[in-house]
């Protein structure tokens, strides 16, 4: 449903992250400056979205321009409809760059890259002391992705039944290769494309669920790095004896998979 | 120097990627629609930039909001000055999200994430059949980063002398840990922050060099994945017997580092 800015103002439940009672006024004020060719400062206004509807859109969009485009455009597209400016000036196709782990390189999953961007867009700030919540939400999404049997979203009438896997990583090539092994399908197969479209739907859905919770003041981290990785951090992370690894990932998926850790 | 759009029009050497002779007209036409709250389609207009000047800005910006912010804001900031709209509406702080491997997670290097975004912004398109050049440039930047002794940029008066390392990876935590080992410095040290600021300068500089070359019609890939990794792809990539790994990275930095590959 297209909601005009005036109509949207009449509705309750609209707020702007990162600001208290003055948030709405601030976001509208800054949004109008877009027509004067000034950037709208973060955070951009967010409203409750329907996670299932966004997931269905992301699934469809995946076939047009890949995962990073699908996750960002499905969420921003809904905000464009419901909020209007400043989302109306967002160049939707930009995030295509992150597809297949950035230009097909197989590094960070494009869906996650988009989820992190959107999360910062609606909860982040130019003031770095105010970015704790954006980081918390992003880390929860990345940990959820690594430890959950995915996809969690599939359309009512999928093109193929998709095997679920836990990939333990935020990297595209790890995620895809684990699925290839489980499904016995190839990377260039239609089944793999369907699986990644379902994954885009899943990531978009979970991101919207967390952003809705944050808007309602109810977000709490539910996905942390595994206890085993936390143990690694006791010796390698900031404040430890070695302080030589700055990372919040499941170390064991790449390290010491076939050889033991040196004796402690 | 601030150049007005009218003044900029008078200058020679301005072009728009992704379009032939009609490119300039197209980009100006679409840029003006920004004031009407419509997104400006990609590619956005690019002009020759000074790589050294952008690197110096990125180095300084790194201390404000990290690598992903620094690399994107240094390049887009120059384009904002020299081109004006549509860059004037870009929310500069947005890319902060990618800092320290996305929200401190230690995955994809934020400088590279920003370089890929900017590359797509000025050479990409909503038409995916036209995105080959953006992917080629992005892959060159990622391969250059992995195989080059970095940083290649340091300011004339650095806060600390920085040890150079080849990290063989596009991941933040691999890059940082290899440098910690070589420098014997900790992740939370001022020396590490200086090193990453120099890295932001280096990535911004190399990205501008490639985008300048592309604008001049002279870009050619000079950094490919290592021959050893290409050998892996002969069995695992698209079109091979197994087709189970979609990736363009240096496999050997993570795989079979301590145990041999199964017999072929």
How far apart lie the N and C ends of chain A? 60 Å
Order of helices and strands of chain A: HHHHHHHHH
Question: Can you count the beta strands of chain A?
Answer: 0
What count of helical segments of chain A does DSSP give? 9
Main beta sheet of chain A, described? none
What general form of chain A does the structure show? globular
Tell me, rounded to a whole number, the average pLDDT of chain A. Answer: 87
Chain pair sharing the greatest interface? A-B, 74 and 74 residues
Gyration radius of chain A, rounded: 20 Å
Characterization of the model:
Two copies of one chain form a homodimer. Chain A has helices spanning 5-10, 23-32, 51-65, 67-82, 110-123, 132-147, 172-183, 190-215, 227-236. The first copy, chain A, is globular, with a radius of gyration of 20 Å. The first copy, chain A, has nine helices and no strands. Chain A has 264 residues and is mainly α. In chain A, 53% of the residues are buried. The first copy, chain A, folds into two domains: 5-215, no CATH class; 231-264, no CATH class. Chain A is 47% helix and 0% strand. At the A-B interface, α5, α6 and α7 of A face α5, α6 and α7 of B.
Short recap of the structure:
The first copy, chain A, is an all-alpha fold.
Explain the layout of strands and helices.
Two copies of one chain form a homodimer.
Chain A: H1 5-10, H2 23-32, H3 51-65, H4 67-82, H5 110-123, H6 132-147, H7 172-183, H8 190-215, H9 227-236
